[in-house]
What we know:
The chain has 481 residues and is α+β, with helices and mostly antiparallel strands. It has 3 domains: 4-291, no CATH class; 307-414, no CATH class; 422-479, Arc Repressor Mutant, subunit A, CATH 1.10.10. It has helices at 58-70, 167-183, 223-242, 270-273, 288-297, 302-313, 317-323, 327-340, 343-361, 372-383, 389-401, 407-414, 422-435, 437-444, 448-461, 468-479, and strands spanning 4-5, 8-19, 74-75, 78-79, 81-85, 95-99, 105-106, 109-114, 117-130, 134-136, 145-147, 154-160, 196-205, 215-220, 250-255, 260-266, 276-277, 284-285. Helix 1 (58-70) crosses helix 5 and helix 15 crosses helix 16 (468-479).
Amino acid sequence: MSTLIRGYEVVIGFETHAQLSTRSKIFSRAATTFGAEPNTQASAVDLALPGTLPVMNRGAVERAIAFGLAVGAQIAPRSVFARKNYFYPDLPKGYQISQYEIPVVQGGVVEFYLDQEKKQVRLVRAHLEEDAGKSLHEDFVGMSGIDLNRAGTPLLEIVTEPDMRSSEEAVAYARELHKIVTWIGICDGNMQEGSFRCDANVSVRRPGAPLGTRREIKNLNSFKFMQQAIDYELRWQIEELEDGRAIEQATVLFDPDTGETRAMRTKEDAADYRYFPDPDLPPLVIAPAWVEQVRSALPELPRAMAARFVADWGLPEYDATTLTQSKAMAAYFEATARTCGQPKLASNWIMGEVSRRLNAGEIGIDQAPVAAPALGALIARIADGTISNNAARQVFESLWSGEGADVDAIIESKGLRQVSDTGALEKIVDDVIAANPDNVAQFKAGKDKAFNALVGQAMKASKGKANPAQVNELLRKKLSG
Length: 481
């Protein structure tokens, strides 16, 4: 279902540059390490010195194949490199080696959940290309510096159809794509270092009308800024249209300090880049055996793991998809579920209390103070009736804060063990019935609220330690007798 804003339909497509995790560049042996001194990782090939020729990095191709397999795309048996011509100071050759007419990865789908609704975004392509250098403006007065360390760094550019209909859906797609590339190990996903850079093509239209003119928001390097930028751009475009002004195709930047987008340049089309096949590089030929070799080396993919969680652990599909947001989260769940034998309870705790604490502390699951076996032991004590849910939260707090590491020891030290002894509970129930004749009469007259009041009195009398299920059962038995 499309999201309408003031009667306009939102249309969003993405172009994402994932820096591939090779040790050397796509066409040279120069290193790709981040943070080196400027221009210390730029070889003669990267600098485009006369007489140098590019040589394809096999590892970059294998990572592109792995991505294609992960999203169910077609791997082109033969693809071609092209020269994309434009003139920036940080582009030594005066062109970028990329792919245009025949990319290595064609099609594919990225699936994810948004508010428990399953979404799909179709991919057009993913193609290999080299990165440009970087222009440095901040450290020089009246001049710009050029750092060519990034020049030639291998990128996989992943292009979607304009399938997204809200900023929330766009961010959910970007998070899922980030998960895929980091899960299969083709990209480290570090957005602050520029390893995963997203460009959002944003437009609006009246429902049923042709696609509107798009503006491309460049280099969004955090999910938070991504949503802010798209939301601002949508409001801006709608206001322009409602004021009678046309939208001009453009490339824009987002300023996180002002929360606004601003035009950088008129958006180029493919014709402006004058693509033509690169004469220095032969066609990239990928044999079926190579594809199968890459396939056999892939880890269990998120979608396959989620399907296994449904089949083996009996989880709902939403839970399974949420728990496979990262390898670490999935491993934490399985370790917890194996310990307690209660997969749905384990899922509820991880998706609930554990995730809430992680988000509040801005830490990952691998940094959680409560190890999976400890959480599993806690859930086991809930399942066997040793403690109530309220008591479990107190135990969890002690585990998280580091007050203790042994679940049973915490239960004993805090006196949280539930009273499950039938004789003791019968006495409490008998006393409550005797002390509350009005509630008893109301319950027998068909008022369920009176029964809840009796349960509350029994729990109060036990100082919260009575097993609620047993209290309910004993009360009903005695009141119906």
